[in-house]
Specification:
The chain has 310 residues and is mainly α. The chain is 75% helix and 0% strand. Helix 2 packs parallel to helix 7 and helix 5 packs antiparallel against helix 6. It starts with a helix and ends with a helix.
Length: 310
């Protein structure tokens, strides 16, 4: 019973935050303009600060350094499996496989993991995001837009990757860590001040992220059959890839508890919320938003199960 209560203490606030975002949209408090501003605040300022600080003070263990490779590999495997699922399920929708192939690690994964699992190494997901960014800009996005061949040059793709503020924050944090500057700062009187300042400024990220998830909830009856079909395909795809990754890493003797939870948690995340931006029309945009918002339920159930076994 005690474990159930502890799980509820984590799950219920997440659900309340998402539901609050949904009703704030209905009341007109949140709209496209305000949510775009919130996304900019989170992605361009608060998250780079938070992740940069995390990477600056984290111990650069083998697990942390392996996560970009693991993240990239998971995305590649999901990408390949997604097109297999498209053929097996005989689905013609263009976006069907792309909604199975990557994860909303930036807005949800990185922010929620250390809150839900405070005893675990939150830097694992920040490190994993390096692999995600490379996959997204070099393979995923060009393929979805039909510009994999003859599209942007390697240099332009690299510029897009490096222009990502979140990635910049991670790389700057790593640089501060590697040079030993973080130990110098954190070991001085300024260490406590820096920590308190970062914690204060970034404390709003999780509630704002949950509001955004609630705002994006879109349940269109016309597309619900396709949404459920896509969600089932994503569960099968990401579940299989997750199991394969855990098996391989365990066989290699490099899998630990924190890495296991990080991989399972990421596998339960929905596709990126921003994908609807690339939709061809309003109907496709509605389908993407509905699928992503519906899949949040899978994330919540997975988190509940992980907490029960923690």
């Amino acid at each position: 019973m005690e474990q159930v209560i502890k799980t509820a203490e984590v799950i219920v606030p997440l659900i309340v935050g998402i539901v609050a975002g949904f009703f704030l949209k209905k009341k007109g408090v949140l709209n496209t303009e305000s949510t775009d501003s919130i996304k900019t605040l989170i992605n361009d300022y608060l998250m780079p600060l938070n992740l940069g600080f995390s990477m600056a003070i984290v111990e650069l263990s083998f697990s942390v350094l392996m996560m970009p490779v693991i993240g990239f590999t998971m995305n590649i495997l999901c990408f390949l499996m997604a097109f297999v699922m498209k053929k097996l399920m005989r689905e013609e929708n263009h976006y069907f496989p792309y909604l199975q192939a990557t994860f909303e690690n930036g807005l949800l994964g990185i922010n929620l993991f250390p809150v839900i699992f405070p005893s675990m190494n939150g830097a694992l997901l920040a490190s994993m995001d390096l692999g995600f960014c490379i996959f997204f800009f070099f393979l995923y996005l060009p393929h979805m837009k039909g510009s994999l061949k003859g599209g942007d040059s390697f240099l332009n793709k690299m510029k897009k990757v490096l222009s990502n503020r979140i990635l910049q924050g991670i790389l700057i944090g790593l640089l501060i860590n590697v040079t030993g500057l973080s130990k110098l700062i954190m070991g001085s009187f300024a260490g406590g001040i820096v920590t308190a300042t970062v914690e204060l400024l970034t404390a709003v990220i999780v509630p704002m992220a949950l509001f955004l998830v609630g705002y994006e909830i879109s349940l269109d009856r016309k597309t619900m059959a396709l949404v459920l079909k896509t969600s089932l395909a994503r569960i099968l795809t990401t579940g299989l890839v997750c199991a394969v990754m855990l098996f391989i890493l365990n066989a290699l003797g490099i899998l630990d508890r924190d890495m296991s939870y990080a991989i399972i948690f990421v596998s339960s995340l929905p596709a990126p919320l921003m994908l609807s931006v690339f939709a061809g029309d309003d109907r496709e945009s509605g389908y993407i938003n509905a699928q992503v918002s519906t899949y949040i339920a899978v994330t919540i159930v997975t988190v509940a199960v992980l907490l029960m076994f923690l």
